[in-house]
Structure formats: C-alpha cells, structure tokens
Write a structure and sequence with these properties.
The structure holds two protein chains of two kinds. The radius of gyration of chain A is 20 Å and the shape is globular. Chain A has one domain. By secondary structure, chain A is mostly helical. Chain A contains 13 helices and no strands. Chain B folds into two domains: about 270 residues, NADH-ubiquinone oxidoreductase 51kDa subunit (Rossmann fold), CATH 3.40.50; about 60 residues, no CATH class. A six-stranded mixed β-sheet of chain B has the order 1-14-13-17-15-16, sandwiched between helices. Chain B has a four-stranded antiparallel β-sheet with strand order 2-8-7-4, with no helix packed on it. Chain B has a four-stranded parallel β-sheet with strand order 11-10-9-12, sandwiched between helices. The chains are: A mainly alpha, B alpha/beta. At the A-B interface, α1 of A face β15, β16, α11 and α12 of B.
C-alpha cells in the first residue's frame, strides 16, 4: 500500500507551551529586580549576577557531559537558578563564593537528584541557606551607595528603629542584590501572574501570613506590619522561589497551606530566631513538607470515588 | 452547579463556519464497512452482482447493540470483502459500483409512528447511530425494550473541536428537521425537558435553535463557554443540568439522554421522509485543502473523492484525520471511506503535532489544571512507570475520557493522554486477573 500519511494518536495539535518559554518568562520577570539591584549596588552586583549565571549553566552543562546525559541547559532553568541565587546574595560577596553557591545549587541540589523536575528542594533557596551557614553570607550585608542607614531594615526593625517606607519600596536599603526593591519585585510578580506562570495563592498566603502575624506581634500596628513585609527577602521569596513548580503543591488549597506555613516559619525566625531573616528557611522547610501537603490536598475527582 | 469544569483553550479555526453544505457529485464507487457503530458488525444481506438503490438494506442489524446499513448510491454490488478499519480490525465491507443515477429505492416511505414502540423501532430501522463521533446505536439510548424515565434530553451542539462546523450547519440549515425530531421524541418518550447546549462562539446556531425554543415551553437553549471539551458527554450534562455522572455510570442513570444535534436532525429527516441514514454532512478543512467546505457525502465515499470535490490539495497532505485535531483518528491513506459517524475530514500539509520531543516533567500542574475531571496525568504517568495499578485506580485513571487537554497543554510535550490510555488498559488487565 502506498502509505505516505503520518499516523499518530490524538491530540494532533499542541498549545505551543514549552518549558523554555516558562523559564524565559521567569527571567523576564526577574529583570526589573536585577536592573534595580545593579543601579542600587553598582557594577559589583552585575558581576555577582554574571558569575552565578555562568557558573550555574556551565556546571549543568559539564555535569550532563560527564554522566553522558542529554544536554538540558537549553531549557534555561539553570539560568533561572543562577539568577535567583545572585539576587539572594549581597553585592559585596567574594565572587568565588558566589560561584561555589551556584555550583552547589545546580550539582548537589538539582543534577544529582535527576535534573529538572526531580529536585526535592528549591536549588537557589538551598544554596542560599548553605552559604549562610558555610560562609556567613548576609552577615556583612552590602548597602546602596546613597543609603541612609548602615543596618539592614530587618536589623533596624529588630532594634526598634523604623526604616523609611519609601526607601523600602524603592529598594534604597541594605540587603541582597535583588531583594530590596519591592516595586521591582511586584512588577515581576504581576508579570508572572498575567502570563499565568504562577497563581496568586502562594504569594498572597505567604505575604498575607507575614503581614497578619507581624501586625499581631508588633503592637497591632498596620504601618509596622507593612514595614515587616517590605523588608528582607519576602517578596523575592514569595513570588519567585516559593512558587517553584517542583517543590510546591499543584492544588490551590495545597498552595495556600504551603504559603501560610512558609509565612509562619519566617515570622518565628524573624521574631524569635537567631537569624534576622527567615524567608529562606520558611521556603526550605515547606519544600521538605511538600510531599505531605500534596498527599493531604488531593484534587477532587469529578464523578470519581473520592468526590 | 457551582462552577464550570476546566478545559483547554484550543484554537477555533472554524473557517467553514456559515458555509451551507453542498452535495458532492455521485462517487463512482462506495465502500461501506459493516461496522460504523459501537457493537456487533451488521450482517451483509447482498452479494456481488445484486442491484441496489439509494436506501436499499445491504446489511442487517446483528443483536441489540448494532445497527442496519443501507446503500448510499444506486448501482451494482461489486464485492463483499474484508477491509482493515482504523480501529485495527478487519471487517466485511460492501463495495458498490454506482450507476450515477442515485435512484431512490421505491419502498422508501415515512414510518408510521403512533406510540413509543413505533418511535424506538423507527430510529432502530433508520440506521442512525451517535453521529457526533461515538457511533452508539441511538435507539438503545431511548430504551430498546422498556420505557425509560427521561428527565432531560440534552442536545449536543457544543461543537468544541477546532475546524468542525458541520453541527452548526445542521443547526442553521436543518432547524425544521431538528424541531420535528424534538416534538416526536418529547411526545413519545415522555421527555420532561429538552436542553440544547451550544458554545458561545456560534451565534447563528444559537439564534436558529432559539427559534425552536421560543415556541416550545419545555425546550431551552443553554449557551456555554467556548472551552474544549465542552461537548464531552459528562461535561455537557454537568454544564446543562448540574448533574454529575459518576465513574462507570451512564447519562440515563441521572435521568438524561444525550444526543448530538446532527443525530437529532437525522432522526427528524427519517421520520419525515423514511430515507435511512445514507449520507453525512461533513466539514472538509485543514492546511492542505484548497477549498475548505461543508459537503453532503454518500456514506462509503472514499476520502480522495471528497477532497477532489474541494479543489484537491494545495500542498501534499502529510496527515489526514477523521474528526477534529483533538480527538480525531489519523488515517493511513485516502481510500478509506466516509463513515456514519464521520463529522469532518481534515488534511494537513504538516504533521501538526507529530510527537514533539518529550522533556522532563517540571510539575507545573498544567495537565491536571486543565483536566475537566481533575485527574493528574503526570502522577498517573509516574504510577504507570512503576506498574502500580493500585495507585492508578486511586488516581482515577478510569475517569479519563481521552480528550487530550493534558497533552495539548504540556510544556514538556509529554504524551500524557497517550500514557493514560496505556494505564487504563494496564488497570483493566490487572482487574481482570484479580477477578479470576
């Protein structure tokens, strides 16, 4: 038989969505914060970003090469991890430490567990916590060239001082490269929401919990609660790291539980812990609990046995 | 109903929308398989050399779940021989050489319908099966042996697949047939309410059906969001009545009967004229087709004759489908015939989705978030890989209606619905073993 026609199982069309496009969207969403960080902290910040991204991509490339796995750097997820890690680091970090952190994130946290989609915890968050423990990163936070105070907002808050709301919103305060400008982070977060890369559940539950708990623990003061949510890495964590697909639940109730849990841990550390910041620990803890959250919140099947 | 079920935003591509159907020239030969329905093959009652007319019985019904088949042309039976169907089965098919006259069988006359039994028998004799694609013998849904308590007759005019407009054509051009069928079905089957469900993007069809509803108290048009798979049976029943059909149940278990609007139009025509189902209105479209059209085609016409009538190809076809791109079946060559349940034939110059390379699942939830029934195909794929049939059952793989939203949406291009099909089969086998 003259059989020239292609046979395949339906569906015969595809939406055109791709992993690469999703990662590209995350990169685009992180650009405002990256640009803001480079303006605030100068060229040194750009160097940290470049080192982290190059180290991340290169280590994934070499890892795949060595274990003879199909190359995956084209999906851009390594770029996202490198960029996210850089935005979580202070601009004055030694560059070799930034590179080590990136390699740790990619090789130890992601690649040896099977690569994209298989990591148990978020690579960038885990690397940040690793660096905090190993190098004491963030202890000597960097400050913008024209910053008024020489303590990070969370330290100021802990000491009973109040940073300026405007400085916090624009990012003109001490901290990591990409975490200080709430404005830039919100622009990126809204972009992700509009592009439907993420849903509102985790960021709203996370930031909302921190807001409510700060309000309750800091003198029932709305302004104080606002300062608490604008300070530190909350927006960066809530919009970009807690929403990582692999390490957060797929259902809306699962996402809400995840966000509330991360918020509570953040607050516990901020108010009662040894470290000034608890966002990374909050997300990391919930990453670890994620399989349980997923099993507690199965999706309801329409007409199924559990409906 | 608290909310709409989820789905995928598929492209519409309804370029033939609003084009009335044109009858194609009588084909030289037709090949009519004895299986164009769900159920047992019909038994051929003609042999090579017999002379037949349009509407002559050529294969009789074989058992309850089966359907009779009639000649779609006038001429001489050339052969009764096995052909390979797209389902992978060999079945007898009757090939008829047309005399080009399309002479109608002189015994054709409208059926006499005075009771429920008369009506059910008429639909049985008409050879009408689910024309939306399923091909289930329609008379069985009306109660083959005993009266059923039918609360709602739901007429499916959703037409959610891309490209296809043949149902809309029927709603716009054959509203009288549809109304005639509704009146008879309501009267003799004692149906309480008729709901015609149509997606919002078909205003002309909605207008036409509203005219039927306006003059009848128990008929209602329900405009539905344009979201694939709106026309899936369980989805449509839920969106029109709020009733949930549980796993393993049928619409009649919740008091509903669902018919495609083209099926209803065919019933109306049969009740009026007595001409059984011998031709189909189908949409001919796709990137390889020169002049996309809606055409009326004798059943058994080879696809190549249909495409030829539509100006032939402007590019070499790489993939040809029965039905739409979401659930349609790709055919091996252009000699295959138009069947009773064919509603479109599409020819594409490119392979369209052609198994793009799958990459690792990033757990974005895009599949489960688009599944109308909330199944998680990525979890099913993991359980299937481990051959964990217990998990497969718990994950509700049996609910999967294979609409393809998950595969359509997956950014990692994973063959999710395809794996669901395999997983369903694996679970069936495991259950059968356990039963032994």
């Amino acid at each position: 038989m003259d059989n020239k026609l292609h046979i395949s199982i339906s569906p015969h069309i595809h939406s055109g969505a791709s992993t690469q496009r999703i990662m590209l969207d995350v990169i685009i969403a992180l650009l405002p914060a990256t640009v803001a960080g480079c303006i605030l902290f100068g060229l040194r910040a750009l160097a940290v970003v470049a080192v982290c991204v190059v180290a991340a991509v290169l280590s994934e490339f070499l890892f795949n090469l060595i274990i003879k796995k199909e190359q995956t750097v084209g999906d851009l997820s390594a770029v996202v991890t490198g960029l996210l890690l850089a935005l979580n680091l202070p601009a004055n970090i030694p560059l070799w430490q930034a590179a080590v952190g990136s390699v740790f994130a990619i090789v130890i946290v992601k690649c040896i567990f099977g690569g994209i989609g298989c990591n148990l915890v978020n690579p960038a968050i885990t690397a940040r916590v690793f660096m905090l423990v190993a190098f004491g990163t963030m202890a000597k936070a960097a400050f913008p060239l024209d910053a008024v105070s020489s303590a990070t907002p969370l330290v100021q808050l802990a000491e009973g001082n109040t940073p300026s709301m405007l400085d916090l919103f624009m990012g003109n305060v001490g901290g990591a490269i990409g975490e200080t400008s709430a404005l830039a982070l919100v622009i990126g977060g809204v972009y992700l929401l509009v592009r439907r890369v993420i849903t509102w559940h985790i960021p709203v539950a996370f930031i909302g919990t921190v807001f409510v708990m700060s309000f309750l623990l800091d003198g029932f003061d709305v302004m104080a609660a606002l300062l608490w949510i604008l300070s530190g890495g909350l927006f960066l964590g809530a919009f970009f790291m807690a929403t990582d697909y692999v390490t957060s639940p797929p259902t809306k109730w699962g996402k809400i539980i995840f966000g509330i849990g991360a918020g509570l841990i953040t607050i516990l550390i901020r108010f009662y812990g040894n470290y000034p910041e608890g966002v990374s620990f909050g997300i990391l803890m919930m990453n670890i609990l994620n399989p349980y959250i997923e099993s507690w919140t199965p999706r309801k099947l329409f007409g199924g046995k559990n409906s | 109903m608290a909310f709409y079920l989820k789905g995928a935003k598929v492209p519409h591509k309804k370029s033939t929308s609003g084009m009335s159907a044109i009858r194609i020239d009588a084909p030289k030969t037709v090949t009519i398989p004895t299986v164009m329905h769900i159920g047992a093959p019909a038994t051929p009652v003609v042999k090579a050399g017999d002379s037949v007319q349009v509407g002559t019985l050529i294969a009789e019904q074989n058992g309850v779940i089966s359907s009779p088949i009639y000649s779609s042309v006038s001429g001489t039976v050339k052969s009764v021989a096995e052909v390979l169907l797209s389902s992978g089965k060999n079945v007898p098919a009757i090939t008829i050489e047309s005399d080009g006259e399309m002479t109608v069988n002189s015994e054709i006359k409208p059926p006499v319908v005075n009771s429920r039994e008369d009506l059910v028998n008429a639909v049985k004799q008409s050879g009408i099966v689910g024309l939306g694609g399923a091909g289930f013998p329609t008379y069985v849904k009306y109660g083959a042996d005993k009266p059923l308590d039918i609360q709602e007759l739901i007429i499916n005019g959703a037409e959610c697949e891309p490209y296809i407009t043949s149902d809309s054509v029927n709603m716009i051009d054959n509203a009288e047939d549809i109304a005639f069928a509704i009146d008879n079905l309501v009267k003799y089957l004692n149906i309480k309410k008729v709901i015609i469900g149509i997606e919002k993007n078909k205003p002309k069809a909605i207008e036409s059906m509203n005219k039927i509803a306006d003059s009848r108290e128990n008929v209602q048009v329900k405009v539905l969001p344009t979201l694939y798979p709106q026309g899936a049976e369980k989805v449509l029943v839920y969106h029109t009545t709020g009733k949930t059909i549980a796993l393993g149940k049928l619409p009649i278990d919740v008091g509903c009967v669902v018919n495609n609007v083209t099926t209803i139009a065919a019933i109306g025509r049969y009740l009026k004229t007595g001409m059984p189902l011998v031709e189909k209105c189908i949409t001919v479209d796709g990137s390889a087709v020169k002049e996309p059209k809606n055409v009326i085609v004798p059943i058994g016409t080879a696809l190549k004759d249909v495409f030829e009538f539509c100006g032939g190809f402007k590019a070499e076809p790489k993939k040809v489908l029965y039905g739409g791109p979401m659930m349609g079946i790709s055919v091996p060559d252009l000699d295959v015939p138009v069947l009773k349940n064919t509603n479109a034939v599409l020819a594409f110059a490119e392979k369209q989705v052609n198994s793009p390379k799958a990459t690792a699942c990033i757990r974005c939830g895009g599949c489960t978030n688009r599944c109308p029934f909330g199944i998680d195909p990525s979890a099913i794929a993991r359980a299937y890989k481990k051959n964990d049939t217990e998990a497969l059952e718990k994950l509700g793989v049996e609910l999967c209606m294979e609409c393809g939203c998950c595969t359509f949406a997956c950014p990692a291009k994973r063959p999710l619905v395809q794996t669901n099909k395999l997983a369903k089969a694996a679970l069936r086998v495991a259950k059968a073993k356990e039963a032994k």
